[in-house]
Write a structure and sequence with these properties.
Shape: globular
Structural class: alpha+beta
Number of strands: 9
Number of helices: 2
Order of helices and strands: EHEEEEHEEEE
CATH superfamily: 2,3-Dihydroxybiphenyl 1,2-Dioxygenase, domain 1
Largest sheet: 5 strands, mixed
Strand content: 25-35%
Helix content: 10-25%
CATH class: Alpha Beta
Strand order of the largest sheet: 5-9-8-6-7
Length: 139
């Protein structure tokens, strides 16, 4: 039996702002939506954003700054950084492995880290070999 990652779900405190991040800034496509939830996709994996509607979300576990982070591969790293910044999302640093401070006058050339509206850290790269074991089909 072969296991494949098929779905990731996150609860957003502001569904529309999260959609602007994942869809408009990073380019995931809308695959469908229903009350309080939107399904996005890269063509291989489902990424579902749920509107968080219960009690206030607890703080990060154990004081860790990014107890969850996600990685995405984009074709145009400078364009992705520009869209993130233009839409008001915080780019944490240039590079994903111990990078340097982000400088908007010098767009990243290989990768950067950015936070989604709920503090999920996203590693954005154009390097197809960034993560061992990832094979993109049709690229």
């Amino acid at each position: 039996m072969r296991t494949r990652l098929a779905h990731v779900g996150v609860r957003a405190t502001d569904l529309e702002r999260s959609l602007r991040f994942w869809r408009d800034a990073l380019g995931l496509e809308v695959a469908g939506s229903f009350a309080g939830c939107t399904d996005l996709t890269d063509g291989a994996c489902n990424f579902r954003i749920f509107q968080h509607g219960d009690a206030p979300r607890p703080p990060h576990v154990g004081g860790m700054l990014d107890y969850l982070h996600v990685g995405v591969i984009v074709n145009d790293i400078a364009g992705a950084a520009r869209r993130c910044a233009d839409l008001g999302f915080t780019i944490i640093w240039d590079g994903v492995d111990g990078g340097t401070a982000y400088d908007p006058s010098r767009p990243p050339t290989a990768s950067f880290k950015v936070e989604d509206p709920d503090g999920i850290v996203v590693d954005v790269t154009s390097d197809l070999s960034q993560w061992p074991g990832v094979a993109l089909r049709g690229e």
